[in-house]
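Q: My labmate handed me this sequence with no annotations at all. I'd like to see what the chain might look like in three dimensions before we decide whether it's worth expressing. Could you predict it?
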Amino acid sequence: MKAQIIRELGQADILLPSLVAEGLAANDRIKVRLSALQAAAEHARQPDHPINELAVESHAAGIAPASIASLVRGAHMIGDCRLGAPALAKLMKEIQDDIATMIRAVNAGSVADGERANARLDSIRAGGLLDASGEIELARIARLTGVGEDSGASLHRLVMELHKALNKLAAGCAEEVIAGAHVFGLHGEDRAPVESFMKGLNETRGLKFDHPGLDTMATRSDGRLLIQNDIGTTDAHVLVIAVRKNAVTVTYSDVHLARAKFFISLFDKFEAKWSGLDRHSADGLGEDSAFFLVTGQFEGEGAADRNDFLAAVGAALVFLIDWNKARKLLRSWVAKDDAARILEWAARHRIGHRAFLELGGNELLGAAVRNAAPNRIGFGERLDKALGRVAAIDFLKTVLRLSTEALLAGQSVRMVRDQIEADLVRRLERVESALLAMVLRQVGLAHDLVAAISHYVATLQANQAADGKALAARASHIEQKADRLAFEARREVTRLDARPVIGQLIDRAEEAVDELEQAAFVASLTPAGLNKSLVSALAELCAVAITATEAAASGLAAAIEVPEGRRADSEDALAAVVRLVDAEHAADTCERAITALVFTGGHDVATSLSTLELARAVERSTDRLAGFGHLLRRHIMIDLAA
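A: Here is what I predict for the chain of 642 residues:
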């Protein structure tokens, strides 16, 4: 009656704030009821699956949870295409009442908008979509709840558009603005929660850059504070927060399940209870009905806890804008799960992904690959295949960080492109360092072989019993291990299109291992009771070979660090190359001395042949290591010239 008198007096504008509040409350209710239709269809089609009774969502929207639970639990198929449910006709009537409430509020602010909405509602009614009965077709549920752009007869899309119109009206009739939020009808105790939410929102708002969204309005309805945020431009992407004292209920709608999970993951330090992640998409209703209504409940021990949670929610919203777009782009470069992890990392570190998209996204990364590694990373090849998973993830994190820092600082696009390309070049060099690390393992196996031979010779020198078969077996095992390592290393060189010199280093190391395995085999056949002078000479040669493997290892370890710009490492590596060459010369001298001893000592044939072959095999290994050293020097000079 009071509202009618006001209209008669021509002061209907006074009613607008209360009508908007009623419309927003109706929006909350109708979304739960549409979700109930989907949940009922899912249960009817798959009665053995867990049931989502929407209890939390119902309570948050002011609907008796028991009525929704009864409808969903009682849903059953009638034939192949229809379902029946208790109080289904009542639910359909309530949906009509809710949409009428929303249209009435919109009409109060804009008659033209209200008339257009009523015309669409009339069309939906004329099609029989809102007929109230105890049965309903699955196809009708799909048309009612679908949110596709071409869903002209979709009640759900009409609801979303009315919701956006109501948010605009709410902003227009705001009594004041609190930290950027348009508010009306608040009580004194409502200011702190609104300010806390806006504090978090404003801390990260700048990370959306030029993208529209994050408009916030707040009002009081049904004894609770309501805070709404439009997030971005997607109709089905809305956040509603209800606050009663220190209890906070977050209702979040999204068409992307992965993004909804991402949103929830950002609040793991709060003891909030979430529901609705996997329940609002019924099989057979079409892709447009894949709509997720997620509800979170947080009960703070005091106002400070409540406000901290509200600030965290506000700060998280900017990271939802274009999240799925960024995830799809990153999935071109790394695995799907890793793309989501990168975005979560960016959100937690207040970096975000909007700057990356603003600067070109895929084109930004593609240009870096083309300019920095045209022959190393093929078209369409993922970065985790070229760099390795950990390095690729770290590189993409760096790209997001550099992009955000550049836009916030007003740097040129050219500068951030150069920074990204330089970082990629460094990481590719680290990939070569990883290949060199594999070669280092080969050299380590060569050292193990010559150490085993040296120990065997020392045993002979001490006139102790030596197990030749054990030496040969161990040497064979080491050589097989080295072969597998060489095969793996060559495969990586080919896959990564690494410098040819790395493949040549692998070859020289493998040849040294082969020579030493042969030396071990010959040593195992050496007759007992060798002349002391022969044994001493062999021990001296083995010591030289050990020195050669150690020089190769230290030079290679230093060379691995050269791309990092460490001049001392390049000097150490080059000095090791000199020691390798010196060791090869010393091995030549030792081998000739042994040859002279054999030819002048009057030894038997077995002793002479085994001693000569052992000495020659060990000396040849130092030849291979000397060649390894020359190749290593070439590799170092290439790095220094880069």
